[in-house]
Amino acid sequence: MKPVNLKEKLKLFSDHWNPRIVGALNGQHVKLAKLEGEFVWHSHTEEDELFLVVSGELKMEFRDRTETVQPGEFIIVPAGVEHRPVAEREVEVLLFEPASTINTGGSEDPRKREDLDWI
Amino acid sequence: MKPVNLKEKLKLFSDHWNPRIVGALNGQHVKLAKLEGEFVWHSHTEEDELFLVVSGELKMEFRDRTETVQPGEFIIVPAGVEHRPVAEREVEVLLFEPASTINTGGSEDPRKREDLDWI
């Protein structure tokens, strides 16, 4: 029950596509991640996923369109919807999603991460 | 699946202690609220609750201590823990909690809100 400072936590790592856990509640995790480049197309069978942009500009590609998400904005990707996060320059995001969520969903990719670290 | 801008949504209302819903995922709601003054002591039997401060300085009182939460910081209050949010000046917060959560928990208060509006 201590305050968590997003900027301070984001200083603790620099690698991309490797979310860290910073909070847990109601079976959900709060995560922070740094994104750069194009991720893999994927979807999550069971989990809705929220991306809140802390810094940078996130392009969330869907099969039929792309949404641009700016700092202070969030976007929710419902379960089952194919999406691909793209960051032309580094983007820092806060993620809210079920603790069971795997970053690559049902797709295979070398950037798949399981057993995320707490910071 | 559209981006939601927190500041734009916060411009749509001015009353205090009356959260609005701005997103839903995995049985949880994302809410925005403006707080000013002292709320009622309460706890939530089943629900953990996250407060992310967007602007202002939030004092989260617990029975044994007080935590100060600044913009860009969040605090998680676990189910069953008595707490009282206090805002000496107006505070804007994003809340993340189960859709079932009532703002006053198990306490009675005229500021109790049910059937929250979506904005």
Word description of this protein:
The structure is a homodimer of 119-residue chains. The first copy, chain A, has 1 helix and 8 strands; from the N terminus they run βαβββββββ. The longest helix of chain A has 5 residues, at 6-10. In chain A, 4% of the residues lie in helices and 47% in strands. In chain A, strands 2, 3, 4, 5, 6, 7 and 8 form a 7-stranded antiparallel sheet that branches. Chain A is globular. The mean pLDDT of chain A is 97. Chain A has a domain at 28-98: Jelly Rolls. Chain A is mainly beta and 119 residues long. The A-B interface holds A 1-7, 23-26, 28, 30, 47-50, 62, 67-70, 72-78, 81, 96-98 and B 1-7, 23-26, 28, 30, 47-50, 62, 67-70, 72-78, 81, 96-98.
Topology of helices and strands:
2 copies of one chain form a homodimer.
Chain A lengths: L3 E2 H5 L9 E6 L2 E11 L10 E7 L2 E5 L3 E4 L3 E5 L5 E16 L21
Antiparallel strand pairs in A: 2-3, 3-8, 4-7, 4-8, 5-6, 5-8
Return residue spans of chain A where pLDDT drops below 50 for at least 5 consecutive residues. Answer: none
Going by CATH, what is the homologous superfamily of one domain in chain A?
Jelly Rolls
Report the sheet with the most strands of chain A, covering strand number, pairing sense and barrel closure: 7 strands, antiparallel
Oligomer: homodimer
Order of helices and strands of chain A: EHEEEEEEE
Q: Count of helices of chain A?
A: 1
Q: Give the CATH architecture of one domain in chain A.
A: Sandwich
Please report the total strand number of chain A as a whole number: 8
Secondary structural class of chain A: mainly beta
CATH topology of one domain in chain A: Jelly Rolls
**What number is the mean pLDDT of chain A?**
97
What is the name of the CATH class of one domain in chain A?
Mainly Beta
Query: Termini of chain A, distance in Å?
Result: 15 Å
Query: What proportion strand of chain A?
Result: over 45%
Query: Biggest interface, and residues per chain?
Result: A-B, 33 and 33 residues
**Helix share, percent of chain A:** under 10%
Give the radius of gyration of chain A.
13 Å
- Overall, the morphology of chain A is globular
